[in-house]
Amino acid sequence: MTTSTVSLSGVRKRFRGTVALDGIDLHLRPGVTGLLGPNGAGKTTLLRILATVLPADDGDVRMLGRDPHDPRQRTDVRRRLGYLPQELGFPRGMSAFAFVDYMAVLKEWDDPGRRHAEVRRVLDQVGLGDIATKRIRTLSGGQRRRVALAQALLGSPEVLVLDEPTTGLDPEQRASLRHVLAELGRTSTLLVSTHQTEDVAALCDRVVVLDEGRVHYDGPVTDLVATAAGHVWLSAAPDAAAQVSARTGSGRYRNLGAGVPPDGEEVAPTLEDAYLLLRGASAATRPEVAA
After folding, report:
1. Cα–chain-centroid distance for residue 284?
2. Once rounded to an integer, what is the mean pLDDT over residues 232-244?
3. Contact 81, 107 (CB under 8 A)
């Protein structure tokens, strides 16, 4: 069995008395793991701890066999880590190339020739090679998101921590990005936080569901989807027996509940169905709070 590249045991984090993470155990190996959960679940806090931006209050964190709490070991981890935060500020006057080049300098790429070749490589990888010289302020939101992703890919890091990487991308761009991340997952450890269940279903073998600072599911995507079998059906109108009912593009209603009623037309579940059922009937109405 491959040794874990990321390992968390009993990790806790509080903010002014609010528990953001409550005893997280998580062990990651090379491959792509999806992270799902509602707003306020603690996803961003978890990612920031893995990115060595935040320290844990309690518990043990190991990244690539190093302890990020130790300054020297933390520096070594950061050299081998790629991080895409949910929001990344850009200097107004920089081009895409200049910004990624600047980030490469911060990551200690000292040789200009090698550094510029690497900057061109990652910009090509995210489909921005032909507009590398454009100023970032002239780019679309999706293009800016891909510039942010490019800086995370510098040096083909052993661990990639990505917070909402597909935000602002159109379907074609998302499909292209999924291909890039799948290739990276052959050798690197990726944790991808997203609200897009279809991205997780298409990209990830494993999914972690986080809610209220705790892991509620950690395992294969297919196993989670299988838990919703026999719980999803179509009807002409919202079904009173359903926990969640939503109108589809065809005008019929997709219902989730304890079981398919006799007059219901059972359909195959999706990851989104299984996720909503895992969270329970209150998932559609529970107020969400910021992490």
Report:
1. 21
2. 92
3. no
Does the structure show a pLDDT above 70 at 290?
no
Q: State residue 2's pLDDT score.
A: 58
Q: Where are the alpha helices (DSSP H) in the chain?
A: 43-50, 71-79, 96-106, 112-125, 141-152, 171-184, 197-203, 221-226, 271-279
291: tokens are: 């992490």
**CA gap 61, 161 in Å, rounded:** 15
The proportion of the chain whose per-residue pLDDT surpasses 70, expressed as a percent, equals: 96
Kindly list the strands in the beta sheet with 206-211, ordered across the sheet, starting from the edge strand earlier in the chain: 81-84, 159-163, 189-193, 31-36, 206-211, 214-220
CA dihedral sign, ordered 237, 242, 245, 248: negative
- Closest to 269 in 3D by CA, of 216, 111, 103, 278: 278
End-to-end CA distance of the chain: 34
Residue type, 277: L
Overall average pLDDT of the 126-138 stretch: 94
Neighbours of 272 (CB within 10 A): 20
Confidence band (pLDDT; 50, 70, 90) for 272?
very high
Q: Which stretch of DSSP H or E encloses residue 19?
A: strand 18-28
- Dihedral sign of CA atoms 273, 276, 280, 281 in order: negative
DSSP 45-94: HHHHHHTTSS--SEEEEEETTB-TTSHHHHHHHHHTEEEE-S-----TT-
Q: Which pTM does this prediction carry?
A: 0.90
